[in-house]
UniProtKB/TrEMBL annotation:
<dbReference type="GO" id="GO:0016787">
    <property type="term" value="F:hydrolase activity"/>
</dbReference>
<dbReference type="InterPro" id="IPR054105">
    <property type="entry name" value="WHD_NrtR"/>
</dbReference>
<dbReference type="InterPro" id="IPR000086">
    <property type="entry name" value="NUDIX_hydrolase_dom"/>
</dbReference>
<protein>
    <submittedName>
        <fullName>NUDIX hydrolase</fullName>
    </submittedName>
</protein>
<dbReference type="Pfam" id="PF00293">
    <property type="entry name" value="NUDIX"/>
</dbReference>
<feature type="region of interest" description="Disordered">
    <location>
        <begin position="194"/>
        <end position="237"/>
    </location>
</feature>
<dbReference type="InterPro" id="IPR015797">
    <property type="entry name" value="NUDIX_hydrolase-like_dom_sf"/>
</dbReference>
<keyword id="KW-0378">Hydrolase</keyword>
<dbReference type="Pfam" id="PF21906">
    <property type="entry name" value="WHD_NrtR"/>
</dbReference>
<feature type="compositionally biased region" description="Acidic residues">
    <location>
        <begin position="228"/>
        <end position="237"/>
    </location>
</feature>
<feature type="domain" description="Nudix hydrolase">
    <location>
        <begin position="2"/>
        <end position="138"/>
    </location>
</feature>
<dbReference type="InterPro" id="IPR036388">
    <property type="entry name" value="WH-like_DNA-bd_sf"/>
</dbReference>
<dbReference type="InterPro" id="IPR036390">
    <property type="entry name" value="WH_DNA-bd_sf"/>
</dbReference>
Amino acid sequence: MLLTVDLVILTLREGRLCVLLVERGEDPFRGMPALPGGFLNHAGEEILDAAHRELSEETSLAAGWVHLEQLATYGDAGRDPRGRVVSVAHLAIAPGLPEPVAGTDAMDAAWMPAEAVLSGQVELAFDHRRIVTDGVERARTKLEFSALATAFCGELFTIAELQKVYEAVWGTELDTRNFYRKVQAVKGFIVPAGSGRRTTGGRPARLYRAGPKTVLSPPLTRPVPSTAEEDTREEGE
């Protein structure tokens, strides 16, 4: 039995939730898009260390400023044609990530809209579509109950920019006044950044930074999709 780590790396690009994919440079599934990842280097390598190493080696992204957490373990007997391979997947999130550079075992690396993967429009190697689906759902759920949304933002951000995070990850538009009221009701979620303001074409907007609170109470509940939206989603599947 062999052990690997796989990375679901999420960021926002032009207002869309995107996931990082690499083009496999070797068999199996040579030439197909897949999640960055690889085998542990040796028996003594810690799994989290391996995740940080793969993040750097396969994408040239620095791990120090990326939110990284363990997602789940995938060990179905037929998930890898090379034999019994168990993957410990990790979810990584950071704001404004640059264009990736392929490393070691990858021929190319690029950002892909997450919806293209979730809908099956882009076919991935192994069981990586399932892993991406689980990673995006983890992010969507944690946005309700935790301060994870701030991991998609820079050090300073406006409430409008924070709202765009929720809209991109949840895949739905939100009422601006209602969102502002709910965010302000969660004490310690975000805090004003002094007197700083950012001009974005209208009135200067106040800047905020992530606050000390990591659990949101009350939570920012995800809107329930309308029947029409659910029907459209089912038709796409």
